[in-house]
Amino acid sequence: MYLTEQLEIATASNVGKVRRNNEDFHRAAVYPVPNGHLILAAVADGMGGAEAGEIASKIAIESLSEAVRSYAEHLASHRPGVALDKLVHKAFTLAQRRIMKYALKHPQSQGMGTTMTALVATDHPKKGFLGHIGDSRAYRYRGDELQLLSTDHSWVAQQVRMGRMTNYEAEEHPWRNLLTQALGVEGAEFEVVPVELAKGDIFIFTSDGLYNLVPPEEWIVDLRQKDLQAAVDYWTARAVQRGGTDNITVVAVRIR
Q1: pLDDT at residue 50, as a whole number
Q2: Are 42 and 251 in contact (CB under 8 A)?
Q3: Number of DSSP helices (H) and strands (E) in the chain, helices first
Q4: What is the reported pTM?
Q5: Residues 239, 165, 161, CA angle at the centre, nearest 5°?
Q6: 2-148+182-255 falls under which CATH superfamily?
Q7: Where are the domains positioned within the chain?
Q8: Rounded to an integer, what distance in angstroms lies between the CA atom of residue 41 and that of residue 30?
């Protein structure tokens, strides 16, 4: 757990009971910059055989981290930087390029890819941008309400948005894990959207291994009663107890 006067960060990751490897990768980092901190929180969920999924998710998170760290160092030297949304776009583009390049050099990894959902923000002023592709999710807990900030890039979510399937049918559909967008796929399209931050907000980033087994409506009572690390650890343990059918990864950030 990371704790300062401005931030509280908690993370957890578990391979689950079914998968041999953990193909999730995550990162939570805070960099000092003039007048405050630059915050990075991200989750990536890899896909592909021959352990290629865990390679793709690692490349994505490392590329994102490299871009954000370099940006923080640039700002720390009191040189002007690009806008945060351009930074996020650049980081996702870098991740896409590196994953595609790796797959070309390693034919056994063809078909590798990953989701990635990430927040890049400053605590002074409080502003941020969410980068997103795939079906890992970002939520914001504010005023005792939990809001989904990301849009699933999956076939069943697309059917729900088009009115061809109910949410219940989507949850039970055998194609619920079929993605329509992912890093590593030719022509991948990711989203970069502004996110409002306020004191007391809790941002939660998670792979589908958590929210499919421990639905978000169950999180609220824990966010009220537990400290952040205890809540994250409890959700992870509960997902394992309920079958652990996928890797489980969570990153949570409280703005203090």
Answers
A1: 55
A2: yes
A3: 7, 12
A4: 0.93
A5: 90
A6: PPM-type phosphatase domain (3.60.40.10)
A7: 2-148+182-255
A8: 9
